[in-house]
Every structure is written in C-alpha cells, then in structure tokens.
C-alpha cells in the first residue's frame, strides 16, 4: 500500500485529507485494484509513518464519499463509488477524485454495468477469435454486419463490405486523409480539435466555413468548396462539435450539390449523431454521396477505441490495403465488445440522452438572460458554445483554472486561430458541478 500511494505528502492539505486523495488517485490510476482489502489502521499508519489518527480521518472521509466500504469484523475494501460508476461524467470532470474539474474534453464515462456485462459476454465467446492470427482485417464480420444493419435501418442501405472498422474516428479520418492526400480541405470554424491536428499533420491547407449556433454560412460554404475543388471537406453535420448545431436538410442538400459541382469528397463525422437531445427527435437525413465516419466514443466510451468508415465497397477494398490500415485498426477483442454493445445500444442511449438533456437545460437556465454572454441552446451534443460579450476567452480560462476548473478557449477549435471571445462549456458534469462552473464564469466575466 505504501508503494502504491507513492509520494503523497507536501500538498499543503491536512495529512488526513492528503492521504484520502492519494488513495483515490491510486485507485483511479490502477495502482490499487478495486475490491482490495486495506491493511489494519495501526499497520497502515506504521508503514506510512503517520499517526493512527491521520489514517482514521482519511478512511472516514473515504467512507463518507463511497470510496471505502467497511464490513464489521471483515476489514475495509477500496472501491469506486456507486455514483462514479453510474453517471455520464467521468470522474475527472466532477472533482470527485480530489483534483481539478477537467472540462477540456467533452466526453462521457463508460456505462459501467452494461460495459462489463458486454465484456463478459464477449469473453465467453472469444474462442474462435483467439484461435485466429489476430492480424488486422477490415473488421470482424459480425461487427461490420451490426454497423451496416443500423445504417440500413436508418434509411441508408449498407452492406457489411461497405464498412471498415478502425480504432476510432481520428483513425478513420487519418486513413482517409492518407488515402486521398488532399492539398486543400474545407473545414468548419469552429470544429473538432483533434480533426484539426490530424489534417494539419497531412500538410493540407485548411479553408474555413463559419458555423454558429444558428447554422452554417452558405456563402462561405460555397467559397470553401470552390477553393477545395477536387480535394476534401471535413464536416460535422449532426450536433456539430463544438456548437451542438444540427445541419438542416436544406443545407445538407446544398453541401451535396456543391460537392458534385466542385468534385469535393465530403467526409461527414457522425460521432455525435446519437446524442440527440430534442424532446421529439425526428429522422436526420444524411448528406448524399458523403463518406461517413463514426465511433462508439460518445455513445458508449472513448476507451472502447472502435470506430468505422462507411463508403462504397471499392473504396473500402482500397483502404484496407493501405499501409496505415493495420496500425489504425481496432483490436479484435474490443470489436467483440463493441458488437455486443452496438447490437442494442438504445437502453444506454436513452438514459444518456435523458441525463444530458436535464443537465443541458440546467446549465442553460443558469446562464440564460445574462448580457455578459450569448449562446443558443443546442439540440444535441455535449456542450454549450458560449460567445463572451467583453472578456476574452483566455482570460476566463485562466480565472477558471485558478479556481479548479479547466476549460478550452475558442481559438483551439479554429483553423485560423480566431474565435477569441468563444468558450466551450461541457454540460456532462452533474448539477452541483454545473452550479460551480456557472458561478466561476460569472466571477471571471465580472473582472
């Protein structure tokens, strides 16, 4: 236990508080296994070189917050709190691990019960997969069939041979960019941060299209497609990251027309498509002719590392022969787990949608009617896109950081380093954390 906790003193906190934080961190980092029995208080105090009272205070704090369970006569066990295993927000976004509230990534935690059950089912029938060579292929046949069937059910007729499984959306975009080698790529401003990193890494020049909470700028859309003639466009039409905007059918039709006119290959990122928070969701059409990429990172968990490309079968055959196809493929066991979860994702999705809708509405109510910022309540996604009226976003980020909240300012999402008065505020944390976030934003904008 002493080795697992490492160097935990010197935080400036009372020793009992610091020790409780060290146990939480060690559990989250995997240095202590959930379900492990703690040594007796006297032995632990001697090993750590502290008083027994310090250990008693630390364990009392951990029991109160659900990190330690004590059974009379049977010792104490460390565990993840039930609330941590149950909710949408990862622990890093709640401050429950005793550290900063980290909202730099708008991501969910895993649905633990369903994920563990799917993992057990996958392990029970993994024999045929484990008996194979394990070398990368376009994806396990059953997973490709599950993904294809869902596309077909949603109105986009798809065969399994039109699906290529990757180890996430970034991998899918990396493979497509490596295949097409575009000199120019039309992108939204703002857009998904990691997509900008991937595209910049290819050496492509980025041409921007402005997107706000009210939608896409059609004049800039045509200009960008004209500039990217014969090359690529990367768009997030479904609950756009980071604005949460949903592209209208009219704009989708315009995108398809412009793509045909200027011979632009459109890559539509559908990672957030499942996070539809409208009270009465209607069907969402797709952009005709677009290459579709998606993943289970937002609907299930980013750690699953399973994504895919939906394209014509001939392109999938070409992509699977690319030298990067192997390194960017998903591990077979992860694909088995994904097949279990994606076969019937709706119980998990409905719960996530309900929680996120309630948290979105709570944050919107906290921030509404204040002339220090403007925003549009998004119909889906994971975050609010806040336009600050006077204070620059980096000033707000610095102030929030000083008060234990990590946020990202608008320029990180912009291909041209603009959007200096914009801020992404995820609504993934529970309400008490959102209350704190709103208070800190208010203080920062009053400076």
What does this molecule look like?
- There is one protein chain.
- By secondary structure, the chain is α/β, with parallel strands linked by helices.
- The protein folds into three domains: 79 residues, Arc Repressor Mutant, subunit A (Orthogonal Bundle), CATH 1.10.10; 232 residues, Aspartate Aminotransferase, domain 2 (3-Layer(aba) Sandwich), CATH 3.40.640.10; 98 residues, Aspartate Aminotransferase, domain 1, CATH 3.90.1150.10.
- The chain is 42% helix and 15% strand.
- The chain has 17 helices and 16 strands.
- The strands form four sheets. It has an eight-stranded mixed beta sheet, sandwiched between helices. It has a four-stranded antiparallel beta sheet with strand order 12-13-16-15, with helices on one face.
- The radius of gyration is 24 Å and the shape is globular.
- It starts with a helix and ends with a helix.
In the CATH hierarchy, the third-tier topology of the largest domain is known as Aspartate Aminotransferase, domain 2
State the share of residues found in helices, binned by percent: 40-55%
Give me the count of strands: 16
- Look at the structure and give the CATH class of the largest domain: Alpha Beta
Strand content: 5-15%
**Low-confidence spans:** none
Q: What is the second-level CATH architecture of the largest domain?
A: 3-Layer(aba) Sandwich
Main beta sheet, described? 8 strands, mixed
Number of domains: 3
Counting helices, strands and paired strands, the structural category is alpha/beta
Estimated radius of gyration: 24 Å
Helical stretch tally: 17
What spatial order of strands do you see in the largest sheet? 4-11-10-9-8-5-6-7
Shape, principal axes of CA atoms? globular
Head-to-tail CA distance between termini: 45 Å
The chain-level mean pLDDT equals 92
By CATH's scheme, which homologous superfamily of the largest domain applies?
Type I PLP-dependent aspartate aminotransferase-like (Major domain)
Domain HTH gntR-type: 13-81
Keywords: Aminotransferase, DNA-binding, Transcription, Transcription regulation, Transferase
Pfam family, one: GntR
InterPro entries: Aminotransferase_I/II_large, HTH_trans_reg/aminotransferase, Tscrpt_reg_HTH_GntR
């Amino acid at each position: 236990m002493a080795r697992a906790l490492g160097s935990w003193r010197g935080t400036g906190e009372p020793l009992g508080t610091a020790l409780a934080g060290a146990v939480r961190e060690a559990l989250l980092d995997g240095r202590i296994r959930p379900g492990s029995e703690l040594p007796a208080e006297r032995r632990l105090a001697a090993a750590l070189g502290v008083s027994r009272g310090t250990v008693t205070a630390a364990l009392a704090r951990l029991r109160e917050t659900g990190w330690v369970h004590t059974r009379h006569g049977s010792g104490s066990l460390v565990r993840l709190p039930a609330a941590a295993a149950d909710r949408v927000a990862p622990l890093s976004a709640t401050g429950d691990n005793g550290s900063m509230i980290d909202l730099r990534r708008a991501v969910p935690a895993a649905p633990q019960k369903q994920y563990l059950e799917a993992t057990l089912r996958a392990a029970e029938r993994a024999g045929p997969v484990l008996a194979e060579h394990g070398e990368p292929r376009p994806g396990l046949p059953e997973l490709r069939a599950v993904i294809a069937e869902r596309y077909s059910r949603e109105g986009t007729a798809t065969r399994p041979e039109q699906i290529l499984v990757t180890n996430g959306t970034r991998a899918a975009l990396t493979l497509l960019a490596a295949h097409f080698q575009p000199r120019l790529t039309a992108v939204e401003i703002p857009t998904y941060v990691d997509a900008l990193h991937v595209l910049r890494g290819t050496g492509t020049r980025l041409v921007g299209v402005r997107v706000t909470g009210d939608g896409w700028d059609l004049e800039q859309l045509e200009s960008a497609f004209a500039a990217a003639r014969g090359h690529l466009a990367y768009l997030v039409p479904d609950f756009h990251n980071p604005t949460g905007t949903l592209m209208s059918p009219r704009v989708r039709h315009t995108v398809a027309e412009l793509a045909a006119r200027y011979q632009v290959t459109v890559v539509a990122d559908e990672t957030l498509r499942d996070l539809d928070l409208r009270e009465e969701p209607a069907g969402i059409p797709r952009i005709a002719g677009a290459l579709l990429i998606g993943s289970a990172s937002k609907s299930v968990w980013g750690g699953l590392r399973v994504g895919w490309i939906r394209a014509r079968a001939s392109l999938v055959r070409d992509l699977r022969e690319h030298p990067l196809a192997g390194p960017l493929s998903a591990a077979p066991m992860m694909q088995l787990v994904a097949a279990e979860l994606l076969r019937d994702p709706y119980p998990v999705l409905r719960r996530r949608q309900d929680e996120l809708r309630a948290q979105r509405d709570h944050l919107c109510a906290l921030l509404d009617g204040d002339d220090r910022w403007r925003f549009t309540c998004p119909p889906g996604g994971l975050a609010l896109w806040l336009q600050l009226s006077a204070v620059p976003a980096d000033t707000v980020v610095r102030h929030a950081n000083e008060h234990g909240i990590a946020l990202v300012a608008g320029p990180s999402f912009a291909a041209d380093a603009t959007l200096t008065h914009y801020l992404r505020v995820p609504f993934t944390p529970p309400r008490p954390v959102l209350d704190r976030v709103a208070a800190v934003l208010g203080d920062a904008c009053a400076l």
